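2024-03-11 09:14:02 DEBUG pipeline.ingest accepted 1 chain
2024-03-11 09:14:02 DEBUG pipeline.ingest length=110
2024-03-11 09:14:03 DEBUG pipeline.predict start
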Amino acid sequence: MSDMMTGAEDILGLATSWATGGERVAIATVVETWGSSPRPAGSQMAVSEAGRMAGSVSGGCIEGAVADAAKAVMESGAPQLLSFGVTNERAWEVGLACGGKVSVFVERLG
């Protein structure tokens, strides 16, 4: 289940409801962009341990990699700062080969 167009307040509300329901949840936030980036700083995405997602940090091109990192963050509790861009060896793989860079902070909710 995914709702990529949910507003910021709704994302946090959904994430809180998932957590209240007993699921582990991680929040990913775009903290920095440079060049061509599909989403501005402050954009957020919530990921639940059941695989539910709400919001967007990239319009789709890096969401899979961010969701994978979110699962690791839910397990360990240790936040991660992810960087994607043309100098990153994974740039073509995650879809940012257009010349942009984006940094995403991923943290466990609660």
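2024-03-11 09:14:41 DEBUG pipeline.report The helical segments are 8-20, 63-76, 91-94.
2024-03-11 09:14:41 DEBUG pipeline.predict end
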